[in-house]
């Protein structure tokens, strides 16, 4: 959005347009009212890499904001309840920067609130599988009380057309892992924004796993608001033919001595498979002692795919420990495949002598490539399940 002046930069005297471009990532316009956003055209910075014509019902249409069925494991120290829009936590972690999120915010009737307390570690899985084919809105709040510890798994299955916002609030010294698992049906469309505020000495691990769905767009935004706050943002995605999997990540270091690591890895196979990753890191003026690094890696398995990878880094203070970013997209290493085919990695001497097929070698490379993310989740049962899901993707089966 244009503004009249930013960081001392003013409109050109001959421009007659009355604005200059936004100069820093944190200065983007935000609003919880969909009427404050112009209709989506696809030319906007946040939409230019998205197939916007395929989900105009979520950006411009009327959304069903009623409560929906949800399954949740019952664990002591974790309360799951529907709360009204006037709950004090609504809006505590962030606000929409684009129309789809604002439409969801304007439309939801009640928010699903997950409240975590107690210092003992706990794990809860919440599953949505009956959202239906109509356009929907949703709002979720995850609050980790001071010194609490938990892993929250948000599991999405079935068919849906959903725009939603998820707010994540960490109190002092809380330790929270949030896993957003997209195993939607083949025609599902899911647009979601995750807003997180991390308090003093708190630690957030945020994991995005996108395997199913037709169009999936998960955008995490984390503000390291307290001194000593820490976040790991991890992502794993596997795009098949015709799938569009997108993630726009933003980390805002807004307090001293904060740390962030962003690691997203994806694989693409099949005609028209498309992935988009945009990583923004802003180290603010008050964030002395920041330690930050972001990276995105993409492995192209077949012809006819496209991976967009755009890392961005802004630094407003020179007093930092370190900051960097990296991006890479490529195909298989022929020498690596040859070595695996000729040598094998099994203890069976007979198989070692004959090696393995090219397809087997390719599967080994992809499993090793993506396992770096899976192994950091911290939930053994989920990690095992995801390894099987990746294998199913590689075999080209419908089972995930």
TrEMBL record:
GO BP of this protein: iron-sulfur cluster assembly
Q: Where is the SUF system FeS cluster assembly SufBD core domain?
A: 137-350
- Provide the protein name: SufD family Fe-S cluster assembly protein
One Pfam family named in its UniProt record? SUFBD_core
Originating species: Cryobacterium shii
What residue ranges are annotated as transmembrane?
none
Write down the InterPro entries for this protein, in alphabetical order: Fe-S_cluster_assembly_SufBD (IPR055346), SUF_FeS_clus_asmbl_SufBD_core (IPR000825), SUF_FeS_clus_asmbl_SufBD_sf (IPR037284)
């Amino acid at each position: 959005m244009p503004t009249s002046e930013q960081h001392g930069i003013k409109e050109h005297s001959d421009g007659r347009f009355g604005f200059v471009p936004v100069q820093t990532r944190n200065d983007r316009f935000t609003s919880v009212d969909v009427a404050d956003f112009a209709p989506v055209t696809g030319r906007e910075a946040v939409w230019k890499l998205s197939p916007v014509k395929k989900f105009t019902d979520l950006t411009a249409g009327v959304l069903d904001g009623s409560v929906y069925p949800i399954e949740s494991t019952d664990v002591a120290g974790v309360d799951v309840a529907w709360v009204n829009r006037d709950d004090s936590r609504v809006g505590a972690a962030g606000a929409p920067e684009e129309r789809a999120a604002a439409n969801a915010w304007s439309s939801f009737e009640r928010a699903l609130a997950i409240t975590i307390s107690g210092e003992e570690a706990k794990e809860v899985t919440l599953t949505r599988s009956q959202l239906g084919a109509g356009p929907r809105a949703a709002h979720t709040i995850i609050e980790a009380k001071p010194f609490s510890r938990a892993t929250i798994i948000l599991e999405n299955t079935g068919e849906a057309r959903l725009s939603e916002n998820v707010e994540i609030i960490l109190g002092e010294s809380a330790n929270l892992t949030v896993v957003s698992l997209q195993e939607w049906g083949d025609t599902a469309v899911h647009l979601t924004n995750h807003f997180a505020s991390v308090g003093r000495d708190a630690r957030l691990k945020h994991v995005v796993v996108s395997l199913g769905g037709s169009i999936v767009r998960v955008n995490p935004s984390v503000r390291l608001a307290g001194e000593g706050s820490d976040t790991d943002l991890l992502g794993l995605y596997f795009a098949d033919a015709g799938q569009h999997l997108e993630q726009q990540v933003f980390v805002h270091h807004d307090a001293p001595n904060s740390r962030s690591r962003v690691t997203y890895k994806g694989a693409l196979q099949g005609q028209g498979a498309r992935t988009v990753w945009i990583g923004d890191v802003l180290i603010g003026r008050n964030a002395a002692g920041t330690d930050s690094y972001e990276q995105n890696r993409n492995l192209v398995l077949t012809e006819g795919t496209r991976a967009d990878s755009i890392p961005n880094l802004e630094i407003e203070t020179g007093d930092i420990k370190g900051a960097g970013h990296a991006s890479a997209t490529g195909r298989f290493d022929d020498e690596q495949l040859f070595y695996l085919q000729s040598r094998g990695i099994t203890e069976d001497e007979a198989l070692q002598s004959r090696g393995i097929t090219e397809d087997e070698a390719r599967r080994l490379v992809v499993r090793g490539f993506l396992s770096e993310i899976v192994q950091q989740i911290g939930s053994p049962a989920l990690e095992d399940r995801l390894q099987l899901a990746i294998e199913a993707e590689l075999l080209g089966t419908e089972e995930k």
